[in-house]
Amino acid sequence: MLTKRIIPCLDIKNGRTVKGVNFVNLRDAGDPVVLAQQYARQGADELVFLDISATLESRGTTCEMVKKVAREIDIPFTVGGGVKCIDDASLLLKSGADKVAVNSAAVKRPELVQELSQNFGNQCIVVAIDAKKINNKWKVHLAGGTIPTDLDLFDWAKQVETLGAGEILFTSMNHDGVKTGFANEALAQLSKTVNIPIIASGGAGAIRHFETVFKDGKADAALAASVFHFGEISIPKLKKELQQHHINMRLS
């Protein structure tokens, strides 16, 4: 049985880790390199770094931070934000990232997913999808959740799988930072729609939320931010409790 993964997410703005609610009202959560070291020591399976203002500010993710993180940790990490072409992805991978995440640029030019997959292998390519439930339909949003589209979450997920995505990172904007649990119904439907791993994001507030996202949401990995950044949930305790509830975990 494959182990399920616990992934702290570090949203980066101006070189600092930040966290908000429903993608707004950001507050400082610390130095990303220091946090990365802590999470690696605590037994996190992977890390995700998202430069949340890169697309809005039309610039690439800073590679200096990626190099620093790569020197300090020995677990896989994904970097996203402002990746618009092969050169952007190549720079991040050469700087030490194990995977790159694409979001807005892929929606605007879907062939980007295929180009990245063909150049670097689909194991390196994560397509991040920010979606919001509006009138009972899940609609994809761009640029850090600031631009709504008519694109359906499930149609887009299937398309990027066909184009060569190796993994999908789905963030429910409705659940982001609210701490009432993940979007398990949407996640379960997503798991039926595609055959690639799904990382669940948005809604973690208690250990039981991680249990239900794996059992009910059928997620392959669970991503969270504030509950880890502000010490509300301990990764070692979380993984031990999940193991006790018959969810296969990699224990340190």
Description:
This protein is α/β, with parallel strands linked by helices and 252 residues long. It contains ten helices and twelve strands. Strands 1-4-5-6-7-10-11-12 form an eight-stranded parallel beta barrel, surrounded by six helices. Strand 10, helix 7 and strand 11 (198-201) form a beta-alpha-beta unit. The longest helix has 11 residues, at 32-42. The relative contact order is 0.16. The model is unreliable at 55-59 (pLDDT under 50).
Write the layout of secondary structure elements.
Layout lengths: L4 E9 L2 E6 L2 E7 L1 H11 L4 E5 L11 H10 L4 E4 L5 H10 L3 E4 L1 H5 L2 H10 L4 E10 L2 E6 L4 E6 H11 L3 E6 L11 H10 L4 E4 L5 H9 L5 E4 L1 H4 L5 H10 L8
Parallel strand pairs: 1-4, 1-12, 4-5, 5-6, 6-7, 7-10, 10-11, 11-12
Antiparallel strand pairs: 1-2, 2-3, 7-8, 8-9
Unreliable spans = 55-59
The Rg value, from CA coordinates, equals 16 Å
For the biggest sheet, the summary is: 8 strands, parallel, barrel
Instruction: Decide which structural class fits the backbone.
Output: alpha/beta
Q: Tell me the fraction of residues in β-strands, as a range.
A: 25-35%
How many β-strand runs? 12
Average pLDDT for all residues: 90
Query: Helix segment count?
Result: 10
Helix content: 25-40%
Overall outline: globular
Would you list the SSEs in sequence order as H and E? EEEHEHEHEHHEEEHEHEHEHH
